[in-house]
């Protein structure tokens, strides 16, 4: 594992447990502002520019000082280390979005079918939506974003909630079975918080070793998809049931990414677009001015790689530059598809495009999967062991076979 802790505090001893004083100290100073709060004081460029370093500092401070894992679990808190990973990802998003919004000439505005009185309550709701709506769906800056077609009934609301709850339960069950299978396949290494490689050095046969690594890479990809989908379903249920959002404001996050017939289709349309505006504003647009479309493509994937590079550090075991290489290779693949279209006049498509996409994604997948496994994330606890469906089913099977 290639570790790098430059600019970060790498030991959990320097963190503090999550508690109200962590966010609201008694001796409140301008440097103690919650980073999310700073976004809504940025009314003019001068104010935005003045508040930008404060936002950067508070985001950095939260990343290196708060410890969500040990705030929730006293015994073996390392099994909840992914909470800190989520925290770091959130603060990095605060960093990127306040950065490009500070210098952007486009003011975020809600797209509404009918005029809505801008009361104090509506302004507050828009501020919350701008914070939590990571894709920016329904806002002017996301008008060109490709959104998957709705597959759930929008009316009545109870039908939408029932379909979303069904999806949530199904994805939790599938996620748990895949996670359990990964732990069994990885033996004691991947199933512990110490972490282990997808490449088992004890397997002498190179084909068997590579097959195991490939299978684990696919499982890691499916688990990433499942975890994000579970979060989205939970978000939709809370938004609609508690905050009375319209179900139409909660379109699908994914569009069957396993059906993609090109890398371009996979990343631009079928995979989630949660960080799309960050990648475009800080990567694609600046580098496209220097190197045209290829520069823009590599710039977007470079920012994506940095996002995952920083997020991996949140697991408290250093980080790994290979995750950046993975996303850069995805950019290379998209550029190659563009060259193919220019040379032949045809898009990468059809079953050959599907094979091409699978080979490229899975072939370079270990650059992403191996660092994740080495971080110990496969040993994390997502459901309590006594009630895990996969564990209960395995015990039942052993009982019946004995």
Structural description of this entry:
With 402 residues, the protein is mostly helical. It has a two-stranded parallel sheet with strand order 1-2. The radius of gyration is 22 Å and the shape is globular. It has helices at residues 20-23, 35-38, 45-65, 68-72, 82-103, 120-132, 157-185, 187-190, 206-241, 263-270, 276-313, 322-344, 350-364, 366-374, 389-401; strands at 16-17, 66-67. The protein contains 15 helices and two strands.
Features:
mainly alpha, two-stranded parallel ribbon, 15 helices, 61% helix, disordered N terminus, Wax_synthase_dom, O-acyltransferase activity, membrane, transferase, Wax_synthase
Strand-helix topology:
Blueprint: E1 16-17, H1 20-23, H2 35-38, H3 45-65, E2 66-67, H4 68-72, H5 82-103, H6 120-132, H7 157-185, H8 187-190, H9 206-241, H10 263-270, H11 276-313, H12 322-344, H13 350-364, H14 366-374, H15 389-401
Parallel strand pairs: 1-2
Helix pairs in contact: 3-5, 5-11, 7-9, 9-14, 11-12, 12-14
């Amino acid at each position: 594992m290639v570790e790098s802790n430059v600019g970060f505090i790498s030991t959990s001893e320097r963190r503090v447990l999550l508690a109200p004083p962590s966010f609201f100290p008694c001796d409140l100073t301008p440097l103690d502002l919650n980073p999310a709060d700073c976004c809504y004081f940025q009314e003019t460029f001068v104010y935005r520019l003045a508040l930008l370093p404060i936002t950067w500092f508070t985001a950095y401070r939260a990343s290196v000082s708060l410890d969500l894992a040990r705030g929730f679990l006293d015994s073996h808190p390392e099994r909840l280390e992914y909470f800190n990973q989520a925290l770091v990802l959130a603060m990095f998003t605060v960093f990127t979005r306040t950065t490009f919004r500070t210098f952007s000439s486009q003011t975020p505005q809600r797209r509404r079918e009918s005029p809505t009185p801008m009361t104090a309550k509506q302004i507050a709701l828009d501020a919350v939506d701008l914070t939590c709506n990571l894709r920016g769906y329904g806002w002017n800056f996301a008008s060109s974003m490709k959104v998957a077609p709705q597959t759930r009934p929008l009316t009545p609301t109870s039908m939408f909630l029932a379909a979303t709850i069904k999806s949530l339960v199904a994805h939790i069950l599938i996620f748990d079975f895949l996670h359990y299978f990964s732990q069994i396949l990885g033996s004691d290494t991947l199933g512990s918080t110490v972490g282990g490689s997808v490449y088992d050095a004890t397997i002498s046969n190179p084909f068997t070793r590579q097959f195991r690594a490939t299978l684990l890479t696919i499982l890691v990809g499916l688990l990433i998809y499942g975890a994000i989908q579970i979060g989205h379903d939970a978000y939709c249920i809370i938004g609609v049931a508690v905050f009375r959002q319209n179900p139409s404001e909660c379109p699908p996050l994914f569009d069957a990414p396993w059906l993609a017939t090109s890398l371009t289709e996979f990343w631009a349309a079928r995979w989630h677009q949660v960080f799309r505006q960050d990648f475009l504003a800080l990567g694609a647009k600046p580098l496209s001015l220097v190197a045209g479309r290829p520069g823009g493509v590599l710039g977007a994937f470079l920012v994506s790689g940095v996002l995952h590079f920083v997020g991996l550090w949140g697991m408290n075991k250093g980080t790994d530059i290979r995750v950046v290489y993975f996303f850069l290779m995805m950019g290379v693949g998209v550029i190659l598809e563009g060259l193919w279209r220019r040379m032949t006049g045809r898009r990468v498509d059809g079953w050959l495009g599907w094979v091409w996409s699978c080979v490229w994604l899975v072939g370079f997948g270990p650059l992403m999967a191996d660092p994740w496994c080495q971080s110990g994330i496969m040993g994390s606890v997502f459901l309590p062991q006594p009630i895990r469906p996969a564990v209960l089913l395995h015990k039942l099977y052993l009982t019946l076979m004995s």
